[in-house]
Amino acid sequence: MSCNLALTRKIIKLLTAPLAIIINALARFIPKDDKTWLFSSWNGLKYSDNSRFIYEYALQNDDSLNVYWMCKTLQLKKEMEKMGLPACYSLSLKGLYLHLTASRVVLSHSVHWEYYPVFLSSNTKRIQTWHGTPIKKIGYDNVLSEKRFYRDWISRIIFYYNIDHFDLVLSNSEFFRKIYASAFRTDIARILVTGSPRDDGLVKGAGDSLGKIMNQGNQASQLEAKKLEPLTILYAPTLRGAAYSKFQGFKLGGWDFTVVDECLGKLNANLYVKLHPAQVMIQNDVLAIDRCDNIRYIPAGDDLINHDMEIGILITDYSGIYFDFLLTGKPIFFYIPDEQEYLKYDRDVYMSSDELSPMLPARDLNTLLNQLSGYVESDSFDFGRLQKLKSQFHSFSDGKNSERAFYAIRDLS
To answer: Tell me, what DSSP letter sits at residue 256?
Structure first.
């Protein structure tokens, strides 16, 4: 059934392609309003990420702009209107009009994900904020994308308006400019170092769930983090396999939840497990966690902020949360029991775990538990290396990334 539906959609798309091409060609002749800016993120389904912080900065600091958050669901539009924020349903008449007349569109993934690019002309400025500083290879650098849309020359010709091209790409530091230039096939001169706007929440300890739960507002040091009662540890692995596939990490890592739970009890610590939003937990693992006293599972749709916690330690692998958490100065432990399989079957990476990890990456559960115990019981952690990594990957930690991004967007010519 799903195959037939997908085929039907492709046929409809091909049949309507001539009309779409005409609309897109005419869109170029419609005058653009320099004061109208559109924002969106995560396929138009969420109010989050870098786009959100720039949107809020624009609302608070420039009354001359017509700023809208574009929503692909009426539910999101209603939620934003309840907060008193200007939002528009993308497929409404007003939404399509805004597509045609906006001078700038800001996004977190791709134009055809967040917007309806057939209604965006080639002279509409497109700003890529990306949704996480990349460890995994992205865009054209991702070898798995050879079978995807933008590698398909037929699609590139017929649906040319869906191909991403950017007038501005925001970068965390000089280190990532070359990576973005290659991944997005964009002139490096268009990639500006502003810092990630969403990291302003980490520095200020406000704004979104990450900023609040990591509690950078009072500049909590790594030593203060250990005084939290009990110590809170977040395990946030990256996506493995296809979107919405089941997470096999605990099985591959040979997890004994009873052993882990006992270790956490001795350390006076709680472990929160938060999978990638597009990953599904195996039900037996959920049941095993439910039987534990010191392990909690946070479902994909549940925001971390709902759990009233301050994270003291991060355990991760190739997740972009690594770069966010670096700003806190708190310990980060790499745990990658399936590293070779991941690199072979899932995604290649820009930097190895050895290059990224402040300590030697743990490739089995016992090593991870020993590293956690060593830190909690005897301060065994390389904070000097942590600081060097922070300096390498973050050019700014002043809470002004959104401001820099805003002016970079405003000054586009």
So the answer is: -
